[in-house]
Write a sequence for this structure.
């Protein structure tokens, strides 16, 4: 297998981000090119920066205190000339520095373009290398698989060769054994030849053997048929026994049901006789009660008629309306009780007088 560290390193190289152009420019500035004040490009001196800052502050404060016209007085033309010369020299050095910087910039851009092209080419080479490595890995795996399959096939073929060799040895042993048996049974062959000569139905020994095989097959067929018949007979016998047992159970159940029904019939007959006697008794009692009710009704009717006639009231209530008759009788009795009480009071009063 391919080393995993190699693949990881290739992946890191191909997946590395591009360099920052500004950072590269800062790193690759030519240190021989100097600034205007004599320092190298990119070099920083803190004391000069502080001095310049202090000078700028002083100039600003002076400008604020007094105008520019008072500073540039005609009495000081020499200082102004010196300042103009310094300014001219500074501008010239600045222009030279700008030209040099532009040249350096072009060189840096060219180098940067070359580096980008080389970087892209390196990335493509790494991609191709990765593809090549992966292809080699796949080829190697396929080769390992083919080698394993070939080894397995060789092993299987060797086992088959060994099995066939053993089988050949076994067949040879069987051949030797069969030859011995043939020599041993050669007398039977002579006997069968004599039988064929004697019997006209068989011309060859094979005919005799085929006839023997046919008779054996017929015998086996008859034995099998007899066996099947016996099996069917046994099955029929078992089915018959099961059917007899089932029917016996059914008959026993029916007998039990008949006995239960007979007992229920006798009980029902006895209960019917008892119910008939009760019905006759109820009817006789009902007849008696109806007769008593009729006599009571007739008595109530007679009492009602008698009271109505004695009170000289018309008979308005019907004979069937027993309730009103009873109410009339009750009212009449209450009136009689009141009358009796009044009579008793009068009698007591008369007796006291």
């Amino acid at each position: 297998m391919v080393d995993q560290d190699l693949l990881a390193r290739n992946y890191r190289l191909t997946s590395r981000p591009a360099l920052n152009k500004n950072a590269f420019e800062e790193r690759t500035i030519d240190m021989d090119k100097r600034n205007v004040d004599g320092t190298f490009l990119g070099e920083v001196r803190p004391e000069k920066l502080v001095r310049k800052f202090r000078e700028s502050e002083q100039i600003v404060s002076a400008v604020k205190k007094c105008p520019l016209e008072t500073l540039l007085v005609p009495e000081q033309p020499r200082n102004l000339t010196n300042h103009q010369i310094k300014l001219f020299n500074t501008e010239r050095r600045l222009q030279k520095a700008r030209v040099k910087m532009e040249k350096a910039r072009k060189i840096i851009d060219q180098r940067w373009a070359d580096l980008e092209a080389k970087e892209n080419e390196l990335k493509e080479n790494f991609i191709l290398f990765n593809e090549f490595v992966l292809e080699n890995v796949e080829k190697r795996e396929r080769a390992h698989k083919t080698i394993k399959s070939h080894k397995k096939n060789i092993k299987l073929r060797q086992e088959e060769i060994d099995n066939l060799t053993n089988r050949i040895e076994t067949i040879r042993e069987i051949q030797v054994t069969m030859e011995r048996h043939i020599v041993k049974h050669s007398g039977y062959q002579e006997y069968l030849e004599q039988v064929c000569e004697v019997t006209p139905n068989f011309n060859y020994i094979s005919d005799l053997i085929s006839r023997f095989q046919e008779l054996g097959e017929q015998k086996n067929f008859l034995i099998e048929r007899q066996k099947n018949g016996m099996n069917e007979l046994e099955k029929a016998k078992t089915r018959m026994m099961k059917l007899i047992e089932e029917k016996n159970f059914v008959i026993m159940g029916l007998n039990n049901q008949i006995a239960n029904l007979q007992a229920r019939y006798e009980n029902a007959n006895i209960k019917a006789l008892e119910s008939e006697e009760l019905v006759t008794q109820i009817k006789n009692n009902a007849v008696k009660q109806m007769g008593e009710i009729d006599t009571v009704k007739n008595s109530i009717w007679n009492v009602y008629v008698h009271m109505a006639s004695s009170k000289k009231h018309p008979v308005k209530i019907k004979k069937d309306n027993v309730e009103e008759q009873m109410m009339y009788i009750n009212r009449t009795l209450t009136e009689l009780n009141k009358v009796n009480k009044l009579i008793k009071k009068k009698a007591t009063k008369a007796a006291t007088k």
Summary: Helices lie at 4-14, 21-27, 46-65, 68-71, 77-184, 186-198, 205-310, 322-352. The first helix runs from residue 4 to 14. Residues 6-44, 65-76 have pLDDT under 50 and may be disordered.
